[in-house]
Amino acid sequence: MLILTCPYCGLAADETELSPGGEAHLKRFGPGSSDDAFTGYLFHRENPRGVHFERWRHSNGCGKWFLAARCTVTLEVFGTYPAQTTEPPAAILDAIRAKRPDWEGRA
Amino acid sequence: MKRYSAFAIAREAARWHMGWERAWRSPTPKAKYDVIVIGAGGHGLATAYYLGKNHGIRNVAVIEKGWLGGGNTGRNTTIIRSNYLQDPSAAIYEKARSLYETLSQDLNYNVMFSPRGVLMLAQTHHEVRGYLRTAHANKLQGVATEYIGPEKVKELCPIINLDGPRYPVLGALWQPRGGTARHDAVAWGYARACSDMGMDILQQTEVTAIRQAGGKVTGVETTKGAIACDKLAIVVAGHSGVLAEMAGFRLPIESVALQALVSEPIKPCMDVVVMANTVHGYMSQSDKGEMVIGGGADGYNNYTQRGSFHHVEETVRALVETFPMISRLKMLRWWGGIVDMTGDRSPILSKTPLGNCFINCGWGTGGFKAIPGSGWGMAELVARGEPGPLTAEFGLDRFREGRFIDESVAAGVAH
Ligand SMILES: Cc1cc2nc3c(=O)[nH]c(=O)nc-3n(C[C@H](O)[C@H](O)[C@H](O)COP(=O)(O)OP(=O)(O)OC[C@H]3O[C@@H](n4cnc5c(N)ncnc54)[C@H](O)[C@@H]3O)c2cc1C
Ligand SMILES: [Zn+2]
Description:
heterodimer, A: 107 residues, alpha+beta, Folate-binding fold, 4-stranded antiparallel β-sheet, two-stranded antiparallel sheet, globular, B: 415 residues, alpha/beta, FAD/NAD(P)-binding domain, D-Amino Acid Oxidase, Chain A, domain 2, 2 domains, 8-stranded mixed β-sheet, 11 helices, binds flavin-adenine dinucleotide, binds zinc ion
């Protein structure tokens, strides 16, 4: 059972209390951008076998969106952080590198 | 290859079964092939088979990191149907279903195709309208389906409870020529036929890099060394994103877990497949007597071939309401596979940014039924370098162009 700690209310929430929201830190492209950039934003996903940054909502709790860094191969959670963050914070990156020295960073 | 037949069984019975030969060879890799197919699941093997059979291309290797058929092909619940809404889907799934009818004869391998009929229950008024629409679409496409009322559902499946408290059965979309087949046998049958044509199936060989020069693929690096090729077909389902990254492009695909389970075996009680999309569950009975049960896909990116317990619980809860008699059965086995989901829930059979590299993926929760048709179309794409009528609409460019083949609403959930 996946357990993520909500960075807002501090609860260690079981996955039945949460809703997954897909890849985090997508850069939004809208009207005026190139077709390629818009296609990439809408559809193309990193979908890595390994470290993944993703959105979650504490839907059966405080209701807020937050972000998590998690390994898709071991389901290990490296940390969670607020949604109002455009890049993964340094503390999260350090936690990942401590456990995955070979990790090459976000593609 | 010695043919399998009633005579062969009698002959071997008379000599203590000492004369059976291996179904496929375990060769050492050659330095170069005309075509390399990555992934020995049903789709990869069928691609290789029709490359040889329909296009005369036999210098082919199928490279598999584990054992052949050990991916989703050996993990699925084997439902075969072609009652899709959109024309391109109906064409490729119906091609596959019709090839399944004679696949055992074609491959000289019993794939145990059982056209026992598939019922898709309508349990809300929205679903009734949706399936009526699909039935009309299927008529125009030449796919034999019928919308039937609850009495006919009960007649076809006496163990069903029509008057569930939450979602009574209002009717169903009925495809009498849909059904099931033995999943392993489909992989094994194609593998045996490929090996017999002189193709090399390289098991326990993982592709670790894709070699390129001047916008083209020149070969692959594997755990058993580098192998060159003129053309490359990537057919790896849940691992498509990993291979695409090796090749240097991105896909509109996310990998998630889909789970299934079987009960202890019981006496025959159900000779159709029943899918209940509103409540996220489906069930059929295997030849061994186990009730084969599946449901919706899990929600988050996952490569572990394990899923979350609460999804299975939801599925079983819904099915107990639909089939009260299963409530006291014990679970025998429970497993998961990693499925490759696209946004429009339709597959990708496409050229790629690399000239001589092609990809077949995105079958998600429902590609077992499509194996023969997909292999047929993919072989044509790889052999000619251009898509034929079966695959033309399934290119990667459809996302950019907004030409989705939207099966997410019509087909409900996992299938
Ligand atoms: C639980 C479950 C139930 C399902 N139920 C149904 C159903 O009832 N009906 C239906 O039609 N469909 C169903 N499906 C979907 C169906 O199983 C798949 O769509 C289909 O089997 C995909 O076949 P494939 O050949 O593309 O992939 P796979 O069979 O997964 O084969 C891909 C192969 O590629 C190999 N590979 C990956 N990476 C590498 C690498 N780097 N090097 C070499 N090899 C590699 C893998 O080991 C694997 O063997 C279900 C799926 C699951 C998981
Ligand atoms: Zn919270």
